[in-house]
Write a structure and sequence with these properties.
By secondary structure, chain A is of the alpha/beta class. Chain A has nine helices and 17 strands. The longest helix of chain A has 16 residues. Classes of the chains: A alpha/beta, B alpha/beta.
Chain lengths: ~325, ~260
């Protein structure tokens, strides 16, 4: 069966969820092989996890360059593996870094690249990628027509499903290009974890907007999020007002999320915000204004004061969860 | 020698309009008014700030696009860029990101550069890969997705927010950078700026001028093809209730029925 390369995204010795989703999708196209870069001491544990989700092989390379320089060392490694393995496709998470690795790799391989796929299926003449464009008002299916298809896939494109495979580690020694040391990382300060799931990966996102009224107001949003194990998002209006960090902004200029459930609180639903959340599977909104455009796309809406509705909802969730 | 900054911008359909596809599956640029991509305004802004800090710099704004794309150049010139380059050729219609990066790279080399500044993504395609492709093609460092950027002593330094960490980065010039919407509010063109922009030079280039063959770009030259485009069916409006003291509980009941609780 043809080999499908999956670039592994890992942090603190753990495989990130979108990579498990990629392995799940890769199994539709062929036999997944993971490419694990900079795994360090965790390489064996990471490889075991990748094997659980279907990776027959795990190409593993370790070098300080992967952490010390931006993007290119990973491109060098992927290029080297791709040229020896001759895969039928390459899948990469559609993160900022992932997209750049994919694009540069594609150019080096003389291959077409498709970004931000929300689904990938096997098709005649290679994988067919589905994208959701123009603020999710259109669905586009495309194919790479030249070289090895390189496709970046958005988190939550599928649910990770285990399927045991060997996960056999094959050590790779990478010869780095001159360009590898082009951009040096001179300092790195880990983010203080909120203890909540990462926004783009979360299965449930609870967001607040202008209607939250103040930074303090986000307390009710956070409490609801925590009762559901959800990530917290914010509209541009709330971020511009300084009520919530920009890293949590959902929308055209912020992050695009595609969770199973999106709960919009005090968010009117302007196009700028919809662009970031319209592919959410189920959408729920709480807003005082019954005319708010957000209600046009909800599966369930409550016209009311979020400071009344949210605490009651949070209590009810806690009760039901026991 | 003065610092040569090339800022790449895209003319895009207004995101608040009813954006759609033309019959050949390319972006329909007729039915919706176009403008300078909002995310590229940040790139123009940072270019101008870097130029101002250097005291001796020239900012060239570059776009690849149809006739109307000159509006995007005009906006950047009125913000303060010194001159513009417009690559315009009928054969470019339908070019993908890989092809666009080839055209931009040639035009950047033709213009001469020490620093190339891009926005973080376009607001229409949202691929966010052109800056990386430019760095790859030009063979220079690519410091991307910067929230802060400074140029001094032949180096560009910046800060980027990763998912897990905040990183400080550094690269020698010449280099390509992309800046985020957190890099600093873009200025509004002043009346004086708008008037001055009318007199600033706009150079037009076609594929011949750049030594690019027509079949390397356009729809036929793309390394990807769109097989199918469908309008997403409008979401069917769900149940809306008015809170009369039980709204939270009603919402909980809905979430439970959908198995979220």
């Amino acid at each position: 069966m043809s080999e499908i390369l999956v670039l592994v995204d890992h942090v603190d010795g753990a495989v990130r969820k979108p990579t498990l989703e990629l392995l799940t999708l890769a199994r539709r196209l062929g036999e997944p092989s993971a490419v694990l870069l900079g795994g360090g001491d965790a390489t064996a544990d990471l490889a075991a996890k990748l094997g659980e989700y279907g990776a027959a092989k795990v190409y593993a390379a370790d070098a300080p360059e992967f952490a010390d320089y931006l993007v290119v060392p990973k491109v060098d490694a992927m290029e080297q593996v791709a040229k020896t393995a001759s895969p039928a496709a390459v899948l990469v998470t559609a993160s900022g870094e992932g997209k750049e690795v994919a694009a540069r790799l594609a150019l080096r391989l003389g291959s077409g690249v498709i970004t931000d796929a929300v689904d990938v299926e096997a098709g005649e003449g290679g994988p067919v990628a589905t994208q959701s464009v123009f603020a999710a008002s259109f669905t586009v299916k495309s194919q790479v027509t030249k070289g090895v298809p390189v496709i970046t896939v958005k988190p939550n494109a599928t649910s990770p499903e285990p399927a045991a495979a060997a996960g056999a580690v094959e050590a790779v020694s990478v010869s780095f290009s001159e360009a590898a040391t082009g951009v040096k990382v001179t300092a790195r300060s880990p983010k203080v974890s909120s203890g909540r799931p990462e926004l783009t990966e979360a299965a449930i996102v609870v967001s607040g907007g202008r209607g939250v009224g103040a930074a303090d107001g986000f307390k009710v949003v956070e409490e609801l999020a925590d009762s559901l194990g959800a990530a917290v998002g914010a509209s541009r209006a709330a971020v511009d007002a300084g009520w919530y960090p920009h890293s949590n902004q959902v929308g055209q200029t912020g992050k695009t999320v595609s969770p199973q459930l999106y709960i919009a609180n005090g968010i009117s639903g302007a196009i700028q915000h919809r662009a970031g959340m319209q592919t959410s599977k189920t959408v729920v909104a709480v807003n005082k204004d019954e005319e708010a455009p957000i209600f046009e796309l909800v599966d369930f809406g409550v016209v009311g004061d979020l400071f009344q509705v949210l605490p009651q909802l949070t209590e009810e969730i806690k009760t039901r969860k026991g | 020698m003065s610092l040569r900054i090339v800022v790449c911008v895209k003319y895009v359909p207004d995101a608040t309009g009813d954006r759609r596809f033309a019959e050949d599956t390319t972006t329909d640029r007729e039915s919706v008014d176009g403008l300078l991509s909002e995310l590229d305004e940040y790139a123009v802004e940072q270019s101008l700030r870097i130029a101002e800090a250097s005291g001796d710099a020239e900012v060239t704004v570059l776009t690849v696009g149809p006739d109307d794309a000159k509006d995007a150049l005009r906006k950047a010139l009125s913000m303060g860029a010194d001159k513009a380059v417009h690559v315009n050729d009928d054969d470019i219609h339908g070019t993908d990101a890989i092809g666009t990066s080839a055209i931009l790279a040639k035009a950047i080399e033709e213009t001469g550069y020490d620093l190339v500044v891009c926005g973080m993504a376009s607001t229409d395609g949202t691929g966010a890969i052109v800056p990386a492709l430019l760095a790859e093609r030009l063979g220079v460092p690519g410091a991307t997705l910067l929230d802060e950027v400074t140029v001094a002593d032949g180096k560009v330094t910046g800060r980027r927010e990763g998912d897990a960490a905040s990183e400080s980065v550094e690269a020698a010039l010449p280099a390509v950078v992309s800046v985020t919407d957190r890099s600093g509010e873009a200025r509004y063109p002043s009346f004086k700026g708008i008037m001055a922009a009318k007199k600033k030079p706009v150079q037009s280039l076609d594929l011949d001028d750049l030594g690019i063959e027509a079949d390397e770009v356009g729809l036929a030259g793309a390394w990807t093809k769109v097989a199918d485009v469908t309008a997403r069916p409008p979401r069917t409006k769900g149940e809306i209730v008015t809170d009369e003291g039980e709204g939270g509980k009603q919402l909980a009941a809905f979430l439970a029925a959908q198995k979220f609780i």
